Amino acid sequence: xxxxxxxxxxxxxxxxxQTVRPLALTLNETELKVSCVTSQGxxxxxDGVVIYKIGDAPPFIANAARRFLGQQPKMESQVYNVFExxxxxxxxxxxxxxxxxxxxxxxxxxxxxxxxxxxxLGLVVDSLQIKDLQDPTGYIQNLAKPHIAQxxxxxxxxxxxxxxxxxEKEAEAAALIADAQSLSAIKQSxxxxxxxxxxxxxxxxxxxxxxxxxxxxxxxxxxxxxxEADREEQKLQTTIRKPADARAYAQRTDAExxxxxxxxxxxxxxxRTELEAQANAxxxELEAQAxxxxxxxxxxxxxxxxEAEAAATTARGNAAAxxxxxxxxxxxxxxxxxxxxxxxxxxxxxxxxxxxxMPAIVSAAAEPFxxxxxxxxxxxxxxxxxxVGGILSQVGSFLPSLASALRGKETPAPAPVKRPAAPPKAPxx
Length: 429
Hints:
Blueprint: E1 28-37, E2 43-54, H1 58-68, H2 74-91, H3 96-101, H4 103-120, E3 123-134, H5 139-203, H6 205-344, H7 346-366, H8 380-408
Protein name: Flotillin
Region (Disordered): 407-429
Pfam family, one: Flot
């Protein structure tokens, strides 16, 4: 359906065919109170106001007429909805600090974002103002506390500085006052002292003149006494001190000469003692060297003798060992030969052994008769023969056992000889 826009003048209207509906082009105002969440996740409530109107150009008026003609009260709610969405979107990308510091930037971003939609509605935004930013969580209040504390601290520091400066100024003023008072008192005291001194000088003028005259007399008397003392000193130097100094000098000279003589004698004695000690030490050294040479010679002779004796002992030991070895080898050869002889002809070997040991056997059998001091043989020659035959019979009684032993052993040992019982002692004829 087409319509005609007439602005700023009148128009002809055909009743029944045309209808006239006015559309106000005045300013409109919409309050904004939008709950938003910042990029930090902090909830804030933005209070603002949007001032807008229908655009003056025909396209704007046509867009506004199509949407709000006859329904102009809905314009406020539509504008509120547009700005509410964009305001939430833009604040969601900002921090609380940016919103506080850059409200103009926020308003500019919201106007730019909503410009296209407002143009479609036929509206033009004249102004967008952020009036207030509420913080239900208390973030802004807490954010301000460090600055508030800093400001309070600076205020206290400034106040303390002003108080200190005031106290310093007051102290300086008090010091200046005290200095002025002290200087005034000093000047007053000096003036008073000068006055008192003048009065005292005036009062003491007479006594001072007497004292001055007396002082001059005393000075003259002192000079006279000093001259007399100098004269006595000169007299003392001439009569007493100089002779005493001469005597002391003579005594000191004698003492120094005696001391020098004693020192020379002591040095000579010490030198002689040192020379004697050196001579004795040289003599002892020579004697020790001689004794050491003799000891070395004796030790060399002893060593040579010991080496000779050791060599002789070694030779004797080697000879004895060789003899023992030869004897052992000979005995071994003899035992081997006897063993071989026993294997071939036992009787001959046994007879040889008996023959070799016969003197010992007979000696052992006759040993009991060696203890008889006097022997009386009865029955003449027959008794003697009988006795000898008894001995021989005793010898023959153990020959078989001896032969048996020789057969059973390689190196037989002589059997013990049984001594015959002593015959009864005959009575003396």
